[in-house]
Amino acid sequence: ATTDAAATNTATTNADLFARAQAAIPGGVNSPVRAFRSVGGTPRFLVSAKGAYVTDVEGREYVDLVAGWGPAILGHADPRVIEAVTDAAARGLSFGSSTPAETVLAELVEARVAPVEKLRLVSTGTEATMSAIRLARGFTGRDLLVKFAGHYHGHSDGLLAEAGSGLATFALPGSAGVPADIAALTLVLPYNDLDAVRAAFAEHGDRIAAVIVEAAAANMGVVPPLPGFNAELVELAHANGSLVISDEVLTGFRVSEAGWWGLESKTEHAYTPDLLTFGKVIGGGMPVAALGGRADVMDQLAPLGPVYQAGTLSGNPVAVAAGVATLRAADAAVYAHLDGAAATISAAVSEALAAEGVAHGVQRAGNLFSFVFGEEVPVHDYATVQRQESFRYAPFFHAMLDAGVSLPPSVFEAWFVTAAHDEAAIDRIVAALPAAARAAAS
Ligand code: PLP
Fold first, then answer.
1. Which residues form a coiled coil (predicted)?
2. Which of 22, 351, 421, 439 is the most buried (most CB within 10 A)?
């Protein structure tokens, strides 16, 4: 019998639940990476999370280095966020009308990220990038979009495109169901390759509406931009009348108070994107995402301008409450802690792998990090990432999981720390490393 008790029933097992989920849900999951396809084995069904830890349906606790794929920057179930959400929920779940807190969240973002003059809230990162692209097309009156191989911007049609061969090749669909005519509006270039960008603008400059780029790539493992890449990209785009959409869905409010833009704005490589997209931390674990940027561009959105964009749940009061509480709590001390935890954990992993003779590189972008296996390090683009000895990750991952440490279930994902990763949590990770490194070596 199907009962609600299944949601919290700790008498069942991960394997039983996965079997049952597979009968009811495609692949047993609501987002593919959760199915553990790239590492094998049985996904853990989580029932609760607190601080640096998550607990599965069998009652096993793991130190968590996924952090809900980024949002849980303060640690899971931070009391300040839970209180804000509970309080908002008690006042009603969804009004479909303006609320005071939406403006508070927009003001918080605008105070932190100078290029954001106006902000529109949506519910997912996919919606944010999709809307930003429509807006860039509406503003410029052009059709083409440039993206970089290995960058992920959500699952809207035009972004599920992979490169054909050669420079500046029009994309082929990266998923069944994406019409070739739509994929053909996306030009996929190798990341960190400004010559490829110059060539694309030389050939198609007057047709390119926007370049969309992860502020620092973190969806093929972590691959930071080369110094000056973002700044030069903005210059090239502007010289050709195109906009730059800097996708900070993952990096925004995670790598610094002002995201990746904030880190680079303090260097000689400062840049000003036209539009930025946010997700994850901005919602503190609830469905909030946003697009923001130049007021003259943002004002092209309906109801002021001709670019349509809307959402029943946009600016949802309960979700916005989580975002406001999270951003208010994420102060300089939190970012200092995240930087320290990332440095400690990544150094410990590297040391353990080196001790077992496993060739690898540590890839860092602020407090985001991941590892590439093999001799070809550091890595600056997708083609090189794909050539790594990725077979070493599955045994490493499972050894860590067996020891009570939950890593991202794919070598092509960033690791996420939280402000709740204290000495005890880090010690547990470090203690698990020698056996995992041995597993990776074999
Ligand atoms: N953009 C980036 C850089 C992301 O990392 C993600 C998700 O991982 C997205 C967009 C899509 O966000 P969502 O999963 O909320 O649709």
1. none
2. 421
- Position in ligand 1 atom list of the atom nearest CA 251: 3
Q: Is 7's pLDDT higher than 60?
A: no
How far apart CA 132 and CA 124 sit, in angstroms, is 12
Q: What is the pLDDT of residue 3?
A: 45
Alpha-carbon gap, residue 95 to 168, rounded angstroms: 46
393 is catalytic: no
Q: How far is the CA of 131 from the centre of ligand 1 (A)?
A: 13
- For 360, the domain range is 4-64+331-441
Check pocket membership of 102 for ligand 1, CB cut-off 6 A: no
Q: Kindly state whether residue 223 falls inside one of the protein's structural domains.
A: yes
User: Which residue, of 270, 296, 329, is where some domain finishes?
Assistant: 329
Q: Count structural domains, the chain.
A: 2
Name the least confident of 29-33, 264-268, 282-286, 344-348: 29-33
pLDDT of residue 8: 57
Q: Whose CA is nearest to atom 7 of ligand 1?
A: 154
Helix 229-239 with 194-204: angle, nearest 10 deg: 10
Name the nearest CA neighbour of 59 among 95, 108, 21, 8. 8
Q: What percent of the chain has pLDDT over 90?
A: 90
Q: What is the pTM of this model?
A: 0.96
Nearest to 409 by CA among 425, 421, 424, 396: 396
- Mean pLDDT throughout 298-326? 98
Is residue 153 lining ligand 1, measured as CB closer than 6 Å?
Answer: yes
How high is the ipTM of this complex?
0.99
Q: From the candidates 62, 152, 191, 382, which is the catalytic residue?
A: 152
Q: What is the sign of the dihedral through the CA atoms of 30, 384, 416 and 224?
A: negative
User: Strands (DSSP E) along 102-190, which ranges?
Assistant: 118-122, 144-148, 161-162, 169-170, 172-173, 186-189
pLDDT, position 10: 57
Retrieve residue 30's tokens: 């609501």
- 285 pocket-lining for ligand 1 (C-beta < 6 Å): no
299 has catalytic annotation: no
